Amino acid sequence: MRKYLLNLIIGITSFFLLTETSFAETTMSEEGQYIFNSLAFYIGGVLVAFMAAGFCMLESGLVTTKSVSTIAAKNIGKFAIASIIFFLFGYNLAYVDQSGFMGSFSMWSEGSEISTGYSDSSDWFFQTMFVCATVSIVSGAVAERIKIWPFFAFAVVMAGFIYPISMGWQWGEGWLYKAGFSDFAGSTLVHACGGAAALAGVMILGARAGRFTSRGGKRVMVPFAASSIPLTTLGTFLLWFGWFGFNGFSQLAMGTFDDVTAISKIAVNTHLAGAAGTVAGAAITRLIGGKTDVIMMLNGALAGLVAITAEPLTPSPMLAIFIGAIGAIIMYFGTKMLENFGLDDVVGAIPVHMFAGIFGTLIVPLSNSETSFSTQFVGVISVVAFSFILSYVAFSALKATIGLRISKEAERLGTDKAEVGVVAYSIRD
User: Fold this and answer.
1) In angstroms, how far apart are the furthest CA atoms of the chain?
2) What distance in Å separates the CA atoms of residue 141 and residue 359, rounded to the nearest whole number?
3) Which of 1, 38, 80, 325 lies at a C-alpha separation of 20 to 30 Å from 411?
């Protein structure tokens, strides 16, 4: 028996030794790469789709109990609307016949060829989840005083024009791409773009009634207490998990050794940045305020994830930790700054996505020598300004035509009763 086992071990060992070279030299076929790359788009798209649930849970937890059903309606509504609009003309506006400033105003259609390396449909699905995430950033910031249908109208503008055009400047190989700008997974193209739109909406809408005692004065907290911290925490975890698809599969390929290795490295850096942001949020609130603010921990995690998104591959793990921590610190002081200016961002979307996103994009040259600080600055300013100006115009137009803000009485009753007629919780504050 022992002799038999010994011969078996020798035989297996010899087999692997003799075939080691052939295994190492094996190259996946063109069809095999097509399959794995398309699978990467699909898996990544599903993970990013879970971020829609994350945004819904986070926003539902941070608004007051009288606005939770409205948040749910807005999130499922914008998810559907953004997807349809991106299909009708948003995708082609970013990617098809890109001349530098914008692509083709036409409907997307399937045209898969094995030579492209991936399925067109899988790519559309993956990219669509990104536009849904961008619109979601706006939702939470303007919560509790915006009418639901004007918000849906803005979602059309955001998903159909603002995001596709500015995103196409880089990912569609437009003028920013040609200039050498680098934003791997969208710290600016997605997050700062959405944050700038949110800032415009917050400025046009104004603060919730009674939110501030005076401009820049002491905050009135009790009437605006978050409805559910556990729900917010769940939303943060869902967003964090979805980020592995958001960043990792922005590698846009899974058919080679290098691609799979890159996806793994991106996952490590993404996770460490989120972890560092969480710890930094806890530490800074403890040091400054004497208490460990769980909301700042949650938003710190998201700010760290946003900051690393511009370049999650090239940094060392230690640099990723640094980037995540600084992103959270920027988020904290950015939140205080908005409050001092009397700007009412319900969920902290602007400091999390815009401020941390700008920081993450600007420091890309620290680890990626293929771009420069000046080029990164030009890219950030261009995308943020474009999104803010067009969003400001869109919100202003909606305010002047169909109306944007709910009435004072509706705000007193809550948007659940005034806008959707469905009460989320039977027990009120």
Assistant:
1) 90
2) 20
3) 80
Q: Taking CA 245 as the corner, what is the angle to CA 85 and CA 226, rounded to the nearest 5 degrees?
A: 75
- The counts of H helices and E strands in the chain are 18, 0
Per-position b or e across 50-65, b if 16+ CB within 10 A of its CB = bbbbbbbbbbbbbbbb
pTM above 0.85, yes or no: yes
Does the structure show a pLDDT above 60 at 25?
no
| Residue 357 CB neighbour total at 10 angstroms | 34
- Sorted by where each starts, the structural domains of the chain and their CATH numbers stand as 33-106+113-420 (1.10.3430.10)
Give the Cα separation of 357 and 359 in Å (integer). 5
Mean of pLDDT over the chain: 92
Separation between Cα atoms, residue 66 and residue 246, nearest integer Å: 32
Give the pLDDT of residue 210: 87
Angstrom CA distances, 67 to 61, 144, 275, 428, stand at 10, 6, 30, 11
